[in-house]
Amino acid sequence: MSWGTELWDQYDTICHFTDQGIEHVKRVSNYVKDRIHVENSYAKELRRLVRSYKKKDDESSCFTTVSSFAKMVQETNDLANQREIISENLQGSVLEPLKQLMRDKTIERRKLVNDGNELLRQLKNQMENLEKTKKAYEKASEEAEVAQVNHDKGDKDQNMTKAKMDKLTGILRTKTNHAEECRNNYLLFLEETNKKQELHYSSQMPEVMTRFQHMDTGRITRLRELMRSYADVQRNVMPIIGKCLDSITAAADGIDPVKDCEQLVKNHKTGFSTPDAVQFVEYGSKQAAKTKTSRSKKVEPKEDFSHLPPEQQRRKLQAKVDELDAAMQKTLSDKTAMEKMQTVYTQNPALGDPKQIQQSLEVTHAKLDDVNAELYKFKVCVWWCVLGVMRCNIVCLTPL
């Protein structure tokens, strides 16, 4: 259905409609701009929330409820990243193309309006000139009629002289010729105007209106594409958002009340035996003397962790042994790598100086000796500590 055919007499309506169409693109553009602002603000607030609840690792981090919550906070930060990605993609894939669409269609419409207005101006000028030609013809015809009446009166007047009669005849002839000339001009101009009017409504103006239609069809089609892009921008991050939520669900599923209860025991079990039964003290005996309570002094940490209760000492010592054992394995791995490199340099001196490797090996051997000595010392401490805890447990379990 063509605007040029169906709306041949609705040029003003088409101009208004296409102007409203561009205004609609502007409105959609403003909406996307505000949406981007909302996404940026949301991401900013999520990050602020994460900073407020992000906690450094401490003793409580080993509990499943605490570690799961930390995971939830971490995933919230990833959700903020996705909101920023939505904002960036909306800016590049939707907002900027909308602005470009509005600029292009504004320029295109302005040209079409100018072309249409020019055609209307030409037709209006033609009609105005036709009206002038018509009025000139009417005026000349009226003057010819007046000249004919005067001539007829003079012809009937017996007192009319020949000179006056000749004058009236000349005026009649002049006015009649002028009227005929104006009539011919009017007919020619009328024919020309009708041709131009037919061309205007059958070809020129429909062509402009069809261009209007093509322009607006392009606007609508592009707007449809950008609205789809708007949805795709959000749809594309949904899998990642889903993974974040899945991670939070997995963290929630990892909460284990039994494990947390056991962890509390592991963290705070001292290994001491329960107190002995309170003995009866005879009045007047030395044991009846009141004992002064001493204030607890701050215990200074010791290298062997002997300032801690037996069970806690054992855990700390075992952790130190594990740390030294890992350092030992790494140093042994470095030593093996340097020995292989020394062999290669010895066989092919062009690749490097084996003496430098030898110096590094000597340093590594010294480091191995130090680590091995430390490891032996702490293993002995662990052995004595385990022995002490076992003795405490035996005493604790022995019936009174």
Concise synopsis of the structure shown:
The chain is an all-alpha fold and 400 residues long. The chain has helices spanning 3-6, 11-53, 64-156, 162-253, 257-268, 310-347, 354-397.
List keywords for this structure.
single chain
Provide structural commentary:
With 400 residues, the chain is mainly α. It is 82% helix and 0% strand. Helix 6 runs antiparallel to helix 7. The protein is rod-shaped and about 180 Å long.
- Estimated structural class: mainly alpha
Low-confidence spans: pLDDT under 50, at least 5 residues? 291-296, 390-400
CA-based shape? rod-shaped
Summarize the main sheet.
none
The count of β-strands is 0
Distinct helical segment count: 7
Per DSSP, what share of the residues sits in E-state strands of 2 or more residues? under 5%
Written as H for each helix and E for each strand, in order along the chain, the element string is HHHHHHH
Write the layout of secondary structure elements.
Blueprint: H1 3-6, H2 11-53, H3 64-156, H4 162-253, H5 257-268, H6 310-347, H7 354-397
Helix pairs in contact: 2-3, 2-4, 3-4, 6-7
